[in-house]
Amino acid sequence: MENISVEKLMIEAKKASEYSYSPYSHFTVGAALLCADGEIVTAANVENRSYGLTICAERSAVVKAISLGKTDYKALAIYCGKADYPVSPCGACRQVISEFADGSMPVYFSGVDINNRVETTVAELFPFDALSEMKNGRYEE
């Protein structure tokens, strides 16, 4: 990863979790998205009393990066500050991440202990992604 260590990315995700707005679940999450230009875009989860309107940290980071004109990503780290085990991205986040990131992009996630983390890829988190097949011409006539 271009001069950015996994530990640095996890620390940035942990820092981002401090900005979590989670008055209902108290489940703080931060994400750090490493962009191709070396910038790290961070975000936190933002809850709503109507839980379906809650925005996860991962989706917040992707949307924030896109709104900054950054569309090429190298890695994503996710930190869950209230879990004693690594917590993976939810299905909605996996869908959004796969929309904008290459299947080979590394994804790291942890609970409170950033050294106890899972290291995987977008493709491993979201196998059989139809968008990847469309991008590769599988569905072209």
From TrEMBL:
Name the enzyme's class: hydrolase
Annotated residues that bind Zn(2+) are located at C56, C90, C93
- Cofactor(s) needed by this chain: Zn(2+)
Can you give the residue ranges of the CMP/dCMP-type deaminase domain? 4-133
GO BP annotation list:
nucleobase-containing small molecule metabolic process; pyrimidine-containing compound metabolic process
One GO cellular component term noted in the UniProt record for this chain = cytosol
Q: What is this protein called?
A: Cytidine deaminase
Q: According to its UniProt entry, what is the function of this protein?
A: This enzyme scavenges exogenous and endogenous cytidine and 2'-deoxycytidine for UMP synthesis.
Q: Active-site positions, per UniProt?
A: E58
Question: What species is given as this protein's source?
Answer: Candidatus Thalassospirochaeta sargassi
**Has keyword Glycoprotein?**
no
The alphabetical list of record keywords is: Hydrolase, Metal-binding, Zinc
> Which Gene3D superfamilies does the protein's record reference?
Cytidine Deaminase, domain 2 (3.40.140.10)
Q: Which residues bind substrate?
A: N45, V46, E47, N48, R49, S50, Y51
Give the reactions, separated by semicolons, that this protein catalyses. Answer: cytidine + H2O + H(+) = uridine + NH4(+); 2'-deoxycytidine + H2O + H(+) = 2'-deoxyuridine + NH4(+)
Family (UniProt): Belongs to the cytidine and deoxycytidylate deaminase family.
Entry GO MF terms: cytidine deaminase activity; identical protein binding; zinc ion binding
NCBIfam families according to UniProt: cyt_deam_tetra (TIGR01354), PRK05578.1 (NF004064)
Q: Which InterPro entries match?
A: APOBEC/CMP_deaminase_Zn-bd (IPR016192), CMP_dCMP_dom (IPR002125), Cyt/Deoxycyt_deaminase (IPR050202), Cyt_deam_tetra (IPR006262), Cytidine_deaminase-like (IPR016193)
**EC number(s) recorded for this UniProt protein:** 3.5.4.5
